[in-house]
Amino acid sequence: MFLKFRNPVSLITKNLLVTRDLDVLKELSSHNLVHVFISVTSLNPRLIRVMEPRTSTPPLRLKAIEVLAQAGIPVGVNAAPIIPGLTDEELPSILKEAAARGATMAGTIVVRLPGPVRELFVEWLHREFPERAGKVLGRIRGVRRGKLSEAEFGRRMKGEGEYARALERMFSLACQKYGLNREKIPLSTGCFLRSPEAQVEMF
Questions:
Q1: 13: three-class secondary structure by DSSP
Q2: What whole-number distance in Å separates Cα of residue 79 and Cα of residue 102?
Q3: CA distance 112 to 118
């Protein structure tokens, strides 16, 4: 549908399966209508197995970046969610590996734990990483004003405090070092096509 109506779209996925639609993505890209972001939470296969089962392994996610880049499709890496005390130290490595495979854009978000996700995460953390649970939860509270989650608009998508600022500096320096986010690639809205069946007038 995006291609049919020339509708710009930004995609984000954790799966190599996005490359099955390479022909469609290439056509969208030819009209400057698509960005694809591959989410890379960690480069540690064991961690991904227990944290994000049924998703592509880290090498396959990096392969997806490479395939998309080689096809000329604007591709970026979403190093997210960053889990303080668990995956934060991997941030520069994730950006380095993604850039080496052709990513030109990057983003990152500190882990969010809204609603019932919070209890599930805490239970998972104590089960899988009992020796690190206290450190992780303490650092999350440190970037969320003493809470495990932040629902307030304008705050919920980013952390606060010195540790959050350190993560931002780490991200910015790594992007600069590996050539990410050097220029914005705006999507086109000039090719949009109306459906012949669309209602032309309200009255």
A1: strand
A2: 15
A3: 8
Kindly report whether the global pTM for this prediction surpasses the value 0.85.
yes
Give yes or no for a contact between 14 and 201, defined as CB atoms under 8 angstroms apart. no
Helices and strands of the chain, counted as H and E runs: 7, 4
Q: What is the tens place of the pLDDT at every residue in 42-65? A: 999 999 999 999 999 999 999 999
Tokens of 22: 């390479």
Three-state secondary structure call for residue 108 = strand
- Looking at domain 9-112+153-178, its CATH architecture is Alpha-Beta Horseshoe (3.80)
List 39's β-bridge partners, or say none.
78
Report the C-alpha gap between 61 and 14 in whole angstroms.
7
The CA angle 105-20-109, to the nearest 5 degrees, is: 30
d(CA 171, CA 169) in angstroms, rounded, equals: 5
Domain residue extents for the chain? 9-112+153-178
Structure tokens at 161: 């405090």
